[in-house]
Write a structure and sequence with these properties.
The chain has strands spanning 41-46, 49-53. By secondary structure, the protein is mainly β. The chain has a domain at 33-84. Strands 1-2 form a two-stranded antiparallel sheet. Strand 1 and strand 2 (49-53) form a beta hairpin.
Length: 84
């Protein structure tokens, strides 16, 4: 991902036989929205880190509106790790 990165020691890609069977989609119900959660708490453990607590473990999507200078990075992890 960086200009000038030296990948000369990497192995070359090789072709392999295709796996057996037929490629098909999973036969499951479509994913749809069941509930919407509003945060029950907001904390700021570091100056640029905000934690929105929805009060329970969940799986799903985050939807939020933000404002700030053009080019600002917004990262929305679903778990919190304060170590780099």
């Amino acid at each position: 991902m960086e200009p000038g990165y030296d990948d000369s020691q990497w192995s070359k890609a090789i072709a392999v036989p295709k796996p057996p069977g037929v490629l098909s989609s999973q036969l499951i119900q479509p994913v749809k929205k069941i509930e919407t959660y509003t945060p029950v708490a907001l904390t700021q453990p570091l100056p640029v880190v905000y934690v929105f607590d929805v009060g329970q473990n969940m799986a799903g999507w985050c939807k939020m509106s933000v404002s700030g200078p053009r080019g600002t990075t917004v990262c929305i992890p679903h778990t919190l790790s304060l170590t780099p």
